[in-house]
Design a protein that fits this description.
With 328 residues, this protein is an alpha/beta fold. The protein has two domains: 42-146, ATPase, nucleotide binding domain (Nucleotidyltransferase, domain 5, 2-Layer Sandwich); 153-310, Exopolyphosphatase. Domain 2 (Nucleotidyltransferase, domain 5, 2-Layer Sandwich). Helices cover 49% and strands 21% of the residues. The strands form three sheets. A six-stranded mixed beta sheet has the order 9-8-7-10-12-11, sandwiched between helices. A five-stranded mixed beta sheet has the order 4-3-2-5-6. Helix 8 packs across helix 12 (290-303) and helix 10 packs across helix 12 (290-303). The chain is globular and about 55 Å long.
Length: 328
């Protein structure tokens, strides 16, 4: 009997040892693995400085699955910047839009819901009024700090995988963020495409003038973000508009674009005459395109990446991702 017990114990020890070796081997093969679980359907609302978006989605099998999407332009940032507060008329518009989004959630039978508000709301002196609107609608609302917005942007871009460099180029702010051995590292600055277009591109006579002035202001922020270098990949959030244009695509979800492609476009724009640039600025949504092309080119050059991968996912998706992903 003792021999049988000893034999079984030795066999168990060997099996345990093999299991430990297997776990170590898998961890070396897949260093970016995360603990994930299915979330079920969630209604997430992204209250951006320019656009509001509703996403009905879920984390399933480690992937994000979107079932419904809505987008509406509210231009809260343009309203807020005039006086530093969100006007009463805009607050009413915000309430109506949130009510409409929540009605969609109700119609789909989805009770799990949350919202995130970004830079314009963070800066507004009367952000408390927005919180009251959300509270009255029983909508959990996070007016995201710079740190929080950066973390959500990282989750949106990577679905929780470690050691990637992420750039989120919104209308008011740009977020640079990574996650690795030192946890989250980030930098946030208000030079998003809306601000950049009004400040650099609209008054410029040529693209070359706008490009050079914008790059000069961006440079210190990019140069100081050394944590963005030498990661496993470079991923863009809210960069799909520029990539669709540059690659002549209808969708750019999961698409990679090379720095060579972007640089060639920048060179062509720099060669544009004053007359042609004036006409270009009349093109619909051009304000969301030109600054992002410059950011694409300069960020890849500064951080040392030959390409960027882009996903067509909104910041609110991060609210869903974090419910099903635990970074390790």
């Amino acid at each position: 009997m003792h021999d049988e017990i000893g034999s079984a114990s030795t066999q168990g020890t060997k099996q345990d040892g093999l299991m430990i070796l297997l776990i170590l081997f898998v961890s070396l093969l897949f260093p970016v693995a995360v603990m994930s679980s299915d979330t079920g359907l969630v209604c997430a609302i992204d209250m951006g400085s320019t656009n509001f978006k509703l996403m009905l989605g879920e984390m399933k099998g480690g992937a994000y699955v979107q079932h419904h999407y809505m987008k509406d332009r509210l231009a809260v940032g343009n309203d807020m910047v005039k006086t530093g507060v969100i006007s009463s008329a805009k607050l009413k518009e915000i309430r109506r839009k949130l009510e409409a989004y929540l009605a969609v959630c109700d119609s789909k039978g989805v009770l799990a819901r949350s919202a995130v508000a970004t830079a314009a709301f963070r800066e507004a002196k009367n952000q408390a009024a927005v919180k009251e609107i959300a509270k009255s609608l029983n909508l959990p609302l996070d007016i995201a700090s710079e740190k929080r917005e950066s973390q959500l942007a990282y989750l949106v871009a990577t679905l929780g995988k470690r050691n990637f460099a992420v750039l989120d180029n919104g209308s008011r702010s740009i977020e640079l963020v990574t996650y690795g051995e030192q946890g989250y590292q980030w930098s946030v600055f208000n030079l998003g495409y809306g601000i950049a277009y009004d400040r650099f591109f609209q008054p410029a006579k040529t693209f070359a003038e706008a490009n050079d002035n914008y790059r000069q202001v961006l440079a210190p922020y990019f140069i100081s973000a050394n944590f963005m270098k030498n990661r496993d990949g470079f991923v863009g959030v809210e960069m799909e508009h520029a990539v669709r244009h540059l690659l002549s695509l209808e969708r750019a979800d999961g698409v990679s674009i090379s720095q060579d492609t972007v640089s060639r476009k920048v060179a062509a724009l720099r060669a544009m005459s004053e007359t042609d640039f004036t006409q270009l600025k009349k093109v619909k949504n051009i304000e969301a395109l030109l600054p992002r092309i410059v950011v694409l080119d300069q960020s890849m050059s500064t951080f040392g990446y030959r390409e960027m991968q882009v996903f067509e996912r909104e910041l609110g998706v991060g609210l869903i991702v974090e419910k099903g992903v635990e970074l390790k």
